[in-house]
Description:
The chain is of the alpha+beta class. It has helices spanning 9-20, 44-60, 73-77, 95-104, 112-116, 126-130, 132-137, 165-169, 175-186, 200-203, 205-221, 235-249, 264-270, 283-287, 328-338, 341-349, 367-375, 389-402, 408-425; strands at residues 32-37, 63-68, 90-94, 148-153, 155-160, 277-280, 297-300, 315-320, 354-355.
Amino acid sequence: MPMMISRGGTAIIAAVCLLTACGGQPGGTGKEITIWSMWSEGEPNQKVLAEAAKDFEKETGVRVRTQWKGRTAVKTFLPSLNTDNVPADLVEGNNRELTRQFAATKAAADLSDVYGAKVHGEQATVADTVGEAYRRMATSADGVVTQLPYQVSTYGWFFDGRTFPELVTAPPKTWEDFTAVLRGQQAKGRSPLGQDGSIPNYNVRYLEHFARALMGDEGWHALAPDRTGRGWLNPEVLKAATMVESLAKGGYFPAGFNATKFPAMQQKWAGGESDFLYQGTYLPKEVAPYADPGFEFRAFRFPSVEGRTPTMNVTTTGFGIPKKARNAADAKRFLAFFLQKKYQEKVSSVALEMSVRKDVPAAAQVADLKRALDSGEINKADVVDVGDFNAKVLLPLSDELLFGKITAAGFTRKMAENAAAYWKSKG
Length: 427
């Protein structure tokens, strides 16, 4: 039966070629692909990726060379895009790295055709499997799909379910409910909140979540790009800062938390020296060696503030492909291959993380947050790239606020002044 070629047929043929190596030898092209991975050898995620790469070689005949670059994979890869010798066909990073930094080079391939292909050995397409929300997060401001995500991370209040069985079944719904729990622990002589104060990005999370609840994602993300700085004087920002000030003055954190070196405080939390820690879903595997025997990792999402619950802040991990990749077709085949359920189940069982696939249960340690994520709203506002604004303006003052060195009113005033000065210096 002759094949009918139509305008729409081109996309269908292209999608099929992704998985069948059109023009190549049966079972594979005989070529090779190079991956720059964000994992280091020995990490759980590294083991999952290495196994999938080995299986891909066996099934397709395409050799996979993986360089385990660690968390700076994207950063160290970007300079090579200005040369004719791009060293990798796939680079692994989070959605912000790939949709902003990588996309900004104009050297990132559009992966729309990958989303149109079927997951290897399955009937569902990549797009159906990833879902629209995560595809949106994988798309640059220019509309280029620069990432194929496979893993999701979010944040929550972690605690030991053995100590707080009542919170397992009925977690705090409001911030007032939660502070009542904190005060109850204080009455027992506890410093209930763990916090690695040496990490500014951790310290600002309280302000961010209070503000996102009060202002919405759009309101919060509009503050940094405001060249006048006046947005920081909004009443909602002052209210959010006042809530952080109350945390600072409440005595909830252990003494010296602002002077300890990461990861000392999260390790002490896992050892039972504090009760709650607001951290990412990567936490359980990081602190597992330090946790008390039988520690039951449980978590709940950030409670509501004045009747409004902040959306869940989400980051995805996945791959991008440079336009100059030598073996882009085989790299795309690998993406559809790695999204298979059997490897995504190992993202859960081995890496103790959350897969983008809704049909893959999360690891028990983060299952509470996976349920909340699948049933709730994730961060929905596009974050404007504001360069080093956070590092130079927001984070230093956020630290001062959380450490009790500045009042809420002083914080908003200085933010307005420093933001205006920062943008003036940029011309």
